[in-house]
Design brief:
Elements: E1 11-14, H1 24-32, E2 40-45, H2 50-61, E3 64-72, E4 75-81, H3 86-101, E5 107-111, E6 116-120, E7 123-127, H4 142-164, E8 171-180, H5 183-186, E9 196-206, H6 211-224, H7 226-231, E10 236-243
Parallel strand pairs: 1-2, 9-10
Antiparallel strand pairs: 2-4, 3-4, 5-6, 6-7, 8-9
Length: about 240
């Protein structure tokens, strides 16, 4: 039977800007184990799609979606009543974790003389040459996509961490600069090492939070960023945050 009183949740956690497909469900299952059977888990979120995605998941998972409420401009609260026992919840959590561990991302690409179109899920984007020395070029080079992926991944991980831990960010902006060991090798002019030599990544923020708290979440964001963790194994990365 669904509980009507949602004022006293047994456990509360903040999912930040994560949606159900980017790991939120795993966190919900993990936090559900902190709630007794029949108890209430309050999920706080800044992602609006959770409102429509959470109820059907609850029905499939054996829980009861009690209510979703928009509590601010970009803030939502969702209340879920636990309906499964500890053992069932642990089994489902392990199954979801194993599924996530084995997930494979699949992309394909088609090329013409002037550009390549990359397809992933229901998205597509176009790239030009490997590198482009012309700042006024008409297509985005693959190297720019590469550096852009690093910057966007780190910023996303950082903003999610801050949101989940109650750290307000008023403004957030980042820059990335990269150099190659041999740009001429990348365009086939000469033989050499065309790999990335050095990357400088700087994120500028304004926040009322203590600088130590912001720095802690920044360090954790770098740890959880798969792009950053991969790249730092192969090249020098100077990464930092600047509190304005």
């Amino acid at each position: 039977m669904a509980r009507e009183d949602i004022s006293n949740a047994d456990h509360i956690f903040d999912g930040g800007s994560m949606d159900c497909g980017s790991g939120l469900i795993l966190l919900i299952r993990q936090n559900m184990l902190k709630v007794p059977s029949g108890g209430i888990l309050e999920v706080r979120s800044s992602e609006p799609t959770v409102e429509s995605e959470l109820p059907p998941w609850c029905r499939m998972a054996g829980h009861i979606h009690l209510r979703s409420l928009k509590s601010g401009k970009e803030a939502w609260q969702h209340w879920v009543q636990r309906g499964t026992g500890d053992e069932a919840e642990r089994i489902e959590l392990e199954a979801d974790k194993n599924k996530a561990q084995q997930f494979q991302w699949n992309l394909r690409a088609r090329a013409t003389d002037v550009e390549t179109t990359v397809y992933s899920r229901n998205f597509s984007w176009k790239t030009g040459s490997t590198i482009d020395f012309d700042h006024a070029g008409e297509t985005i080079s693959t190297l720019e996509h590469f550096f852009g992926a690093l910057l966007s991944d780190v910023i996303y991980c950082f903003s999610v961490r801050c949101s989940q831990n109650g750290i307000l960010l008023d403004e957030l902006e980042g820059t990335v600069n990269g150099t190659l060991n041999s740009p001429l090798a990348a365009v086939g002019v000469e033989q050499g090492d065309s790999s990335v030599k050095k990357i400088k990544l700087v994120v500028y923020i304004t926040s009322p939070a203590a600088s130590a708290d912001v720095q802690r979440e920044w360090n954790q964001a770098l740890t959880s960023s798969p792009v950053f963790q991969t790249l730092q194994k192969s090249c020098e990365i100077d990464s930092r945050i600047v509190l304005l």
